[in-house]
Amino acid sequence: MHSQIEQAIAAELYGEPVETEDSPQSSAIIGKLSRRKFLKISGGGAAMALAMQIVPGAAMAYDPYPTGAEGMPNGTVVDPHVFVEIAPDGTVTLTTHRSEMGTGAKTGVPMVLADEMEADWSRVVLRQAEGDEPKYGNQDTDGSRSLRHYLQPMRQMGASVRSMLEQAAAKQWGVEADQVIAENHEVHMKDGSKKIGYGDIAAEAMALEVPAFEELSFKTEDQFRYMGKGEVPMYDLHDITTGKARYGADITLDGMKFAAVARPPVVGARVESVDDSDAMKVPGVERIVNIDGSMPPAKFAPLGGVAVVASNTWAAIKGRDALKIQWSDSPHGEYNSKAYAEQMRATAKKPGKVMRKVGDPDAAFSNAARVFSQEYYQPHMQHAQMEPLVAVADFKDGKLNIWAPVQSPYGARTDTAAALGMDAADVTVEVSLLGGGFGRKSKCDYVIEAALVSKEIGAPVKLQWTREDDIRHGFYHTTSVEHLEAALDGDDKVIGWRHRSVSPTIFSTFVEDPLHTSGLEAGMGLVDTPIGVENLVVESGEAKSHTRIGWFRSVSNIPRAWGVQSFIAELAHDLGRDPKDMLIELIGPDRKIDPVAADMKELWNYGEPYEEFPNDTARLRGVIELAAEKAGWGKDLPEGEALGIAAHRSFVTYVATVVKVKVGADGSVAVPEVHMAVDCGFCVNPERVASQMEGAAVMGMTLAMHSNINYENGAVTNSNFHDYPVVRINSYPKDVHTHIVDHPFAVHATGVGEPGVPPVAPALANAIFAATGKRFRDMPFGENVG
Amino acid sequence: MAISIKVNGEEHAFDGDPTMPVLWYVRDILNLHGTKFGCGTGQCGACTVHVDGKAQRGCLLSMESVAGRDITTIEGLDPNGDHPVQKAWRVNNVPQCGYCQAGQIMNAASLLENNPKASSEEIEQQMTGNICRCGCYQRIQAAVEMAASEMEG
Fold it and tell me: A548 with A613, same domain?
């Protein structure tokens, strides 16, 4: 089973009651378990976890904390021999085991190790790890987890190597280890009498026993060389600017063939007949190979279809386009986006399954002087990462070697092995750079396709998806209707709150016909709502899935923030209140929400122990106020300009967005300024955090204005950037300012790849309303602006 | 008859499918992988190359249409990768995933070779042909403006 699924299932498991002797009533939530209990449950496999049981000694520079890392498949590995090599010339080779798709994880994670071991970054070489989680620990690069989970293991390994280098130098000089100190790629006598380069003692140092965690000393924050500075550029920067950086399609093997695949237009349809006579006439086309599809649920299996194998990519695509295929009917052949939206809206008007209930919402709504209610829609969306899917596979003598841009190389390895009936030990997966991922490259259907074709033709193959393939055969971001109600008393005080979400679940890709949003998705802005109204109910309405649904950057946080943050601004307008004040008032007093008292039974806290990563409304209020202050909220603006605000906690990071819009004389709307305030705990790399926030502003604006995957009779009608447009440079948010809340290391670092996106669309819609009086409740609304 | 073409200063002869786009010729036949496939329809600019010094979409240019022409790919833009646009890209830490960047750089370089005094508006207009899904636009704009001021001297 793929690690993604295991993660999802783990989420479900953690949502199940776990009886503990010391806190039975808090049993529903892992975060409520005491630290001691957490350690017992997480088992003895982790040095980090063991370390928790030890009172930090004087050598420590920080108090280690548990994260969800140990709950991930294959956990973490803290053996420096796996990640660090030091050559005699001093070159330090660090293994980077997370995939690089633009977030900076490839550089940022090993940079922590280099900092802690006092390595000079200019003498560091990075080696991209192959897919091997038993060796490296979890490699599934999604969920904004890379730094959240690997900051501490990287520090531990860095401190270990630094200690080993110091011990080796001390031994060589015949002194005690406390008389020497490692600094910037050299070990010195503290009295300045001697020094030696890392390369000169590497062999001796690396032969020493790796120190136990409690023997390590860590750098203090003022000693950080790279962490928190934002001065280390991404490792591949130079190669990217010169065309040397290697992505999935840039792998070439001797004797390699090229393939393109015709896939069923409707999920679940099969090939009934193929006429390949025209395809075989295309110069360069060599063979036709059938690919079996899977029975639903699809998981990450190929859709099935017909592959055309050729001597170059162009011939393969041309040959593929010349195939004449009769497809069978599919049970999903009547899926139509417009009709389905109406169906979801009808469901949203009826009571749903109660997922969280606080106080007496029924009484609040029946006693209300009036009820303010609105509904918000969001269609399916597709990742449209710049690099279309591609994989190179070479099946030979019972072994399979794969080169591919994958977010989860070990998941791709085990899933592909299973699909071919092989032992994972006979499969390797080498990871190239990813030309964007956004969740699509977590699903390895394209890798399995390449492997099947290579096995069939007995030669290495590069299997290339076109843009049309990518847009029409995705794992789509789910569609949703978010229904919000506020019960108001005679004084316009909000006394009741209802949020009903209707949205087909990601789990439909893995299990047969689930009808409700999962615990994992409910934890993304539904049951974990920070709204502090005393009578509150959260519900899910039934929605059956008719396509492959999958992770898309920020996942269900997008529709939830869209609904809730638009609704609050609408309510504020209705009551004649300032939207920012209303937002802060509804969130209520600063508190770490007690998940038991708040009835968050099925809380999915992104896999993190709740005690360590609580839902802290003070931090949410903090980013709202920071973004508002920096954007000049409340100040007079020139005619035609207005601000909109939205905030959302996701992936245990807090982000608030203020968008400024400017209405032109012709009614056109421009976005001259965006302020992104982010609280991600200790910030390891402020420069990449800013780049992620800038990118989130652009992607959020694309989703709000343009993104609409449309189904007719089960098939996606979009095909390329003309009918699935994205924001271009002429319409992007012009000046995106990132404001990072400054925290010491003690405030746990959290990820930023996803959390920037959710608040952008509602902030934009709220700003457009403030400027024009036009309210958008259906995404995307670009065609209706101006 | 074989098609003669110059790529990054080297002469080549091609006797394959004359409708093959330059994109696939440089990638699959010459193994020059810096030029990227993004959409195949001229909408994203990831495949931008220079034809006789002018930015063109490699995915729409058939080999027969460029017979006898002089093609430059990202690999041939500057021998040391130090074209002012490339340098400005690095100073501004422009890329995220990086996949579209070669096309962006080739388009910007062509604009500035032909119009070193390009205004912010002209830069925006030219760069509108190139999509960056990661959303690096603000840094792209800053980098092209920086390169413009260097090239203008």
Answer: yes
The pLDDT of residue A37 is: 31
Query: Where are the alpha helices (H) located in A473-525, listed in sequence order?
Result: 519-522
Contacts of B90 in chain A (CB under 8 A): 233, 237-238, 241
The chain B residue lying nearest A462, using CA atoms, is B28
Q: Which residues of A touch B93 (CB under 8 A)?
A: 233-234, 237, 687, 691
**CB within 8 Å: B99 and A437:** no
SS3 A146: helix
B115 shares a domain with B60: no
For residue B117, what are the domain limits? 84-152
Out of A191, A222, A242, a domain closes at A242
Residue A32 exposed, middle or buried by CB count within 10 Å (0-12, 13-18, 19+): buried
Cβ atoms of residues A87 and A182 within 8 Å: no
Q: Say whether both B67 and B129 belong to one domain.
A: no
Determine contact, residues A390/A445, Cβ cutoff 8 Å. no
Chosen domain end from B76, B93, B114: B76
Structure confidence by residue, pLDDT tens digits, A694-704: 999 999 999 99
- Chain B hits for A726, Cβ within 8 Å: 131, 133
Residues whose CB falls within 8 Å of the CB of residue A326, separated by 6 or more in sequence, listed in order = A271, A272, A273, A274
What confidence tens digit (pLDDT) does each residue in A211-262 have? 999 999 999 999 999 999 999 999 999 999 999 999 999 999 999 999 999 9
Q: Which domain holds residue A700?
A: 337-381+476-784
Are A699 and B133 an interchain contact pair (Cβ–Cβ within 8 Å)? yes
How many other CB atoms are there within 10 angstroms of residue B51's CB atom?
Answer: 19
At residue A25, the pLDDT reads 31
| Most A CBs within 10 Å, among B37, B44, B83, B124, to test the A interface | B37
Confirm whether A28 is domain-assigned: no
Report pLDDT digits (tens) over A351-380.
Answer: 999 999 999 999 999 999 999 999 999 999
Please check whether residue A678 is in contact with residue A623, taking contact to mean a CB–CB distance below 8 angstroms: yes
Q: What share of chain A is helix, strand, coil (3-state, %, to 5)?
A: 35, 20, 45
Q: What is this model's ipTM?
A: 0.99
Question: Cβ A238–B81 below 8 Å, yes or no?
Answer: yes
Asked if A430 contacts A401 with a C-beta cutoff of 8 angstroms, the reply is yes
Taking only residues 33 to 62 of chain A, the set having a beta carbon closer than 8 angstroms to any beta carbon of chain B reads: none
CB A775 within 8 A of CB A376: no
Q: B95 and B64 in one domain?
A: no
pTM: 0.94
pLDDT for res A59: 59
Write down the pLDDT at residue A318. Answer: 98
Write out the two tokens for A423. Answer: 């032992």
Domain match, A576 and A619 both: yes
Tell whether A431 and A577 lie within a shared domain: no
Kindly state whether residues B33 and B93 are assigned to the same domain.
Answer: no
Domain boundary among B76, B107, B132: B76
Contacts with A234 from chain B: Cβ below 8 Å: 93, 95
Last residue of a domain, one of A211, A242, A273: A242
Question: Mind listing the pLDDT tens digit for each residue in A572-627?
Answer: 999 999 999 999 999 999 999 999 889 987 689 999 999 999 999 999 999 999 99
Q: Do A687 and A601 belong to one domain?
A: yes
A338 at the B interface (CB within 8 A)? Answer: no
Contact (CB<8Å) A243/B32: yes
CB neighbour list of residue A377: distance below 8 Å, 6 or more residues apart:
A341, A344, A345, A479, A480, A481, A482, A777, A778, A779
Q: What is the mean pLDDT of residues A477-500?
A: 98
Which CATH number belongs to the domain containing residue B112 in this structure?
Answer: 1.10.150.120
pLDDT value of residue A11: 40
Query: Do residues B121 and B148 make contact, with C-beta atoms less than 8 angstroms apart?
Result: no
Q: What CATH number is given to the structural domain containing A632?
A: 3.30.365.10
Nearest to A283 among B17, B32, B133 (CB): B17
